[in-house]
Write a structure and sequence with these properties.
The structure is a homodimer of 207-residue chains.
Chain A lengths: L7 H17 L5 H8 L4 H13 L3 E3 L7 E3 L1 H8 L5 E4 L14 E5 L1 H4 L6 E5 L15 E6 L8 E6 L4 E9 L2 E5 L8 E3 L4 E13 L1
Antiparallel strand pairs in A: 1-2, 3-4, 5-6, 6-11, 7-8, 7-11, 8-9, 9-10
The first copy, chain A, binds a DNA duplex (30 and 30 nucleotides) through helix 2 and helix 3.
Amino acid sequence: MYRKNLTERQYEILEFICRRIDKDSRPPTIREIGREFSISSTKGVFDHLDALEKKGWITKSSGEARGIQPIREKTEELFGKEEGLPIVGSVVAGGPTLAVENVEGLLELDEMFPNQEELFALRVDGDSMIEAGIHKGDILVVRQQPTADVGDIVVAVINDDKGTVKKLSRVDEEVHLKPANPYYDTIVRDPSEVEIRGRVVGVVRKM
Amino acid sequence: MYRKNLTERQYEILEFICRRIDKDSRPPTIREIGREFSISSTKGVFDHLDALEKKGWITKSSGEARGIQPIREKTEELFGKEEGLPIVGSVVAGGPTLAVENVEGLLELDEMFPNQEELFALRVDGDSMIEAGIHKGDILVVRQQPTADVGDIVVAVINDDKGTVKKLSRVDEEVHLKPANPYYDTIVRDPSEVEIRGRVVGVVRKM
DNA sequence: TTGTATACTAAACATAAGTTTAGTAAAATA
DNA sequence: TATTTTACTAAACTTATGTTTAGTATACAA
């Protein structure tokens, strides 16, 4: 067997279908597949599709035009999503191309930060969090939440003013917002004056 | 006129087509559109599609089943891509929801780092670049290139060994790879021993 | 007021595309 | 060795889908 219980022909055809969907935003017809692979009879293609369906790689909406629908979770694993950047664990000597064996995964925001509904991004203005690796111009990924734990880096609004990014801590009855920069002072306020808007869960920087 | 020279009906139908493509990876048929909008005659829908084509929002592959193809650049602008996180410039007081007026753009890797073919991502191992805001566990976005300028943060391989991330500089005839951490030493080598694999163009961190 | 654009119905038509029947041949499997 | 699976051809059939013809009604501009 060629790959994952598919014959070579089935693999080729499945790949063609997926590439066509990526390219044209619609699946090919049986005859279009036949043309691509020089299969003159529609039955020849039909049989391959039956096999692909039986093996769980596609579903066919019976009777509908362009009814082939690949099972995305499976085919994406097989052919890749054509999205994101390959993450490598280390760069080794050799040619200029990346060794595929070395690839750990794909860098993609969707995967890295799921639950996008709760997230927003915030451009950093000052340099008060520089020692936490947060620089001016960085974009923070923030999870919207009204409370946070001590030690979290939070986005907070003080006295209905502009938002600020600081490390949260509590002493006695007061909220402490600590910068990660020795040239800035800790902000100490009564809890009623501080409104937590979210917790920083990621940083994205373009250099 | 409703929006961008479209009538309300045309806008609705165009939106339906785009959402259907996003959802099902294929455009609807004329009759499917008719069903959605309770238009019993295919001609009713057909006329709308003609209007949409004349106004430059879609193309129709004449004679082909599911031949409607929206002009992506235009429709994405109209309906959004449903991808990425909204980037806000500042967080202001008020409700827990984000003010739309405040949104500067969308955070998406494709847009932030185009030319994906030349890019790869590298997981950072040590803490030698901590003062450059590069921490252990961060993922670097690296542009593959065999040379770099002085001052660039580069991924380099020394003596065919494991890759390292340092700031590039040159003194006399030698390559200096400078860490951004006072506890580490600058690596000084002959150019023949250093192979530059790429330049760091971004950082992504999950916290 | 006449024409043009919008927004449809109803019915017929043409064809693109899915499906089925009948059969061949080689390769893999039991 | 027999049987199943793979990989097709050829032709007919069905139907989903695109297209056209003929006509109604309203709104708007020239």
